[in-house]
Automatic annotation (TrEMBL):
Domain of life from the UniProt record: Bacteria
CDD domains on file: KH-II_Jag, R3H_jag
SUPFAM superfamilies: R3H domain (SSF82708)
Identification of the protein by name: Jag protein
Length: 181
């Protein structure tokens, strides 16, 4: 399937089902109790692990989301192995991504405020592509410009004023290498 082809809702639901089965198997292996919630959001299959035990949940999130990121990568590979196609599946654990999005939204707004106050570009700390895309979206919504610089894993976002800035960007710059999550 070409990258530009949109998947049907049935295909997305199938990916979520495969992912849920895979994650249930992993939960059984580590003997964690958890419920799996599936859905489709923004044309992407989503699977969330919800558990009653906060201790188990913290282990599934890890420090700075490292474990949930690894779970997502492994689950995407499991889906790809079954379907033969690359998946843009999102795996979340107990709302971690929602909280992460809010923190990134706040970081972006702080950078926007600083750029407006000083008139100077503001560099943010290095982020992964998921994080950078969220920042780019917030910056664009607020009427400023942003651009990614550097190479992984040190790629970061710079926030610029829209007018009077020495460096301007095009819409293509917003998502340069920043669309994969």
């Amino acid at each position: 399937m070409a990258q530009d082809d949109e998947k049907t809702i049935d295909q997305l639901n199938e990916e979520a089902d495969i992912a849920a089965d895979y994650l249930e198997g992993l939960l059984d292996i580590v003997d964690y109790e958890g419920d799996i919630e599936m859905g489709v959001r923004n044309n992407r299959p989503t699977v969330q692990i919800v558990a009653d035990d906060d201790t188990d949940i913290k282990h599934l999130i890890g420090r700075n989301g490292e474990v949930v990121d690894a779970l997502q990568q492994l689950t995407r590979l499991a889906v790809q192995q079954k379907t033969g196609e690359r998946s843009h599946l999102i795996v979340d654990v107990d709302g971690y991504l929602k909280h992460k999005r809010q923190r990134l939204h706040d970081i972006a707004l702080d950078a926007i405020d600083e750029a407006r106050e000083t008139g100077e570009p503001v560099d943010l700390k290095p982020m992964n592509s998921f994080e950078r895309k969220i920042v780019h979206d917030v910056v664009r919504e607020e009427g400023l410009k942003s651009r990614s610089h550097g190479e992984e894993p040190h790629r970061y976002v710079t926030v610029y004023l829209k007018s009077g800035s020495a460096e301007t960007t095009t819409e293509d710059d917003y998502f340069e290498d920043d669309v994969e999550a």
